[in-house]
Each structure stands twice: as C-alpha cells, then as structure tokens.
Amino acid sequence: MKNKYFDLQVNGYAGVDFNQNDLSLDDLTQVCVKLKQDGVAGILATIITADFSDMIKRVTNIARFSKQSEIIAEMVKGIHLEGPFINGADGFRGAHPQEFILRPTVERMAQLLDACDGLLKLVTLAPEKDEDNLVTKYLYQQGIVISAGHCDPTFEQLKEAVTEGLSMFTHLGNGCPQLLHRHDNIIQRALSLKDRLWLCFIADGHHVPFHALKNYIDLVGVDRVIITTDAMAAAGAKQGLYTLSNITLEVGEDRIVRETGKSNFAGSAIDMKSSAENLAKQLDLTAEQIHQVTYANAVSVFK
Question: Which domains, and CATH codes, for the chain?
Fold first, then answer.
C-alpha cells in the first residue's frame, strides 16, 4: 500500500467539479476510476461555501451516487464541508464567496449533516465564529472531525475549540492574508498546538514554498502532518478555464489555480502522486515518511 494515497480535500478532478448541482453519476464514476488509476485509495469529496440550498443539493447528490456505484463507494470515503461557517474577512475567506458565508448554528449544521446521509466526515470552520463552540461540540458528539480553516481565532479561542473537540487545521499557511503580524498570527497559534492538532499542508510549492514546508514538517513531525491537494477540476487535466462552484478559475502553464483576474489561489491543480514526488525531491523525505503523511495518518483519522 505504500504507493497509495488518501486525500481528504478534493473539490474536483480530471475536468469534473464536484461543486455543481448537475454533477452526474457518470462524471463522478469516471473521476473515481481516474483517481484509482493515479494511485489514490480514497478521498473526501469536498464541498465549499455556496448558496446553502446548493450545498444541500451537492452533498445529497454525492451521498446518493455513493449508493449507486461500487467504485464511488470504494473511493469516496466521505464528504468534507469546507464552509459555509468560515471567516468572511478578505484574506481569510480566500476564494469562498462572501455573500454565502454564514454564522454557524446547530440547526444549519444539522441540515447539512442530514443531507450527507451518513457520509459527512470532516467540517472546516472558523472557531471564532462558533459561539460557545456549540457547532464544534455538536459535531464532536456526532463523531465528525472538526478542522479550523479560513479563520483567525485568538490563541485562547483556538485552544478552547480544541478542548471542545476540534482536532485538525485545514491547509495551514493558506486561507489567511499574505501580510500577518510577525509573531501573533494564525500560523503560529496553530503550530503552538501541534501536539493536539493534525496539521494539513498542500505540497505543490506554491501554496507553501518548499523551504517553509520543510520547516513546518521538521517542527511538527511526520506523526502529526497530513498532505492534501485541495485539488479542483484541473488536477489530472490540462491548463485552461475551469469552475469551482460559481467561481471561474484559470490554470496557467505554472499550474497555479487563480480566480480570473485575481492573484489569490483558489485550490490547486496538483495530484497526490506529484505531491509525493515533491516531498521526496524537494524535502528529502523517506518513502516511509511520505507514506505516513500522504496515506497512513489520514487513514488513522478517517478509518
């Protein structure tokens, strides 16, 4: 299994965007076939912030398709909701549309959980927006993994959320402004809780430069690191224009994914095999270490 990967943040792949209301059974089936061919053993299909009713439709479709196709059931190990309960401030929200970002409530979360029909495995939210950690507590009681991301909690807010069940940080080093306080910033706060959090990183060299990624992994240790792709439809496909939900994205020759006319990243076009190759060539990780951060750690969380 050491050439296999588990990716807990996949928005789309091979030209197919999971964040569309008209996603078809055939499209998702073909994506799963391609993922398996590319060495992936399982994914969490990731649905990002959108109109709440659209998010309900999208997770409902994925849950329904998983019951209709053996390959989808095999490959889609669950659903990752990245939003809508994130920080709406520019820089922290990234490409998530501000107009659809919502205040976390147990009632809204319960609607999404019900629509996922047993497939919801991971929720990325902003702890500072979760009043009294009510949604975090609710999800923890339901056995759902809670991750901080696109957020800016104080150290005390983050620590309290961890006490209430939050156990992960989504694509650390991203989902935050380029300019931060040099000491008291969200990256430092998360790193200070490295013994209590799974820390996820994107290993494409763009989201986090390789020298910085090496520093993070050296500090945290491979026992607490999970490599994800945050892949969108261009992963496993050629450069060009793509969609992510209602956002138009452009993938250039450099394989960087950006909103058309903007500079911020909007997902990635990398796959897990290329991520693993980067870890070997750029960071000098051993095969055993690469297996741990691209497969074993994630499987231990979502088994």
Answer: 5-301 (3.20.20.140)
